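I am writing to request your help with a piece of structural work I have in hand. What I wish to show you is a protein chain and, alongside it, a tokenised description of its three-dimensional fold. Could you please explain, in whatever detail you think fit, how the structure tokens follow from the sequence? You will find the record immediately after this paragraph.
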Amino acid sequence: MTTTARMRAFVALAEDGSVRGAAGRLVVTESTVSAAVRALAEEVGVALVERDGRGVKLTPAGRRYATYARRVLGLLEEGAAAARGEADPEHGRVRLAAVTTAGEHLLPDLLVTFRRIHPGVGVEVDVEPSGRVWPMLTHHEVDVVIAGRPPSASPELRVRAVRDNSLTVVGAPGGTFDPATATWLLRESGSGIRTTLATVLDALPVAPPQLVLGSHAATVAAARAGLGVTLVSREAVRRLLADGDLVELPVPGTPLERPWHVVTHPDATASTELLVAHLLDTDGWHAPGRA
């Protein structure tokens, strides 16, 4: 087994938290995963996992090594895709990650038009919470991210396109509304909107009741049913607002301007550049610093 294969087994174990889960992900036997991780530890020269009851867990050295292993594997995939894309950008591959709201409301139309113009480019899409997509880009597991505000300035990240996006509080029509007593519907842990909403709630005079529902679709459906109120992208609920199924509610500090950002590595692949160029030719998107 090659070092790369051993690293894949180790990263799968690190992410799934069990040998069985890693084996299922890689479609191999549990003994194959265990043997690969043992061999990798011998190669590195330190213990990467240790016993934890009936299972195993990463050692401090293993946790540190997992970060590098993810990056190495991501770079290997990126390098292969970059080489193929450089030779023939129209038949390369783009690995794209988007936060949930963007994945549900921006990507479908965007990918339809992009694939119509560039049918030979393969596009792989991951839709994850904000706390997940940025590490995927940092570790070179994806080529481009569509999300809200990117992490603090980093030489490994480059903002390529921006689109206006307003966050507003919505709820079912009718009745009275008091932000200090209303039930607030929260997104899943790691969601950028949930983090922003926490700041809004911190500014209220009292702590209102909260209910975690775990996804954009769930919070919007619950707000529409009258279960509570929530903070959402106005664009994502524009039809519900137009039809009167939801109404915007007055809350101090809202609406909030949180533009969408398209972010790549500085040395993006040729096929990724095709996607960026397509975005900049699409209504609503513009280069950073331009209105």
Observations:
- The chain has a mean pLDDT of 89.
- The chain is about 45% helix and 20% strand.
- The CA atoms of residues 19 and 31 lie 8 Å apart.
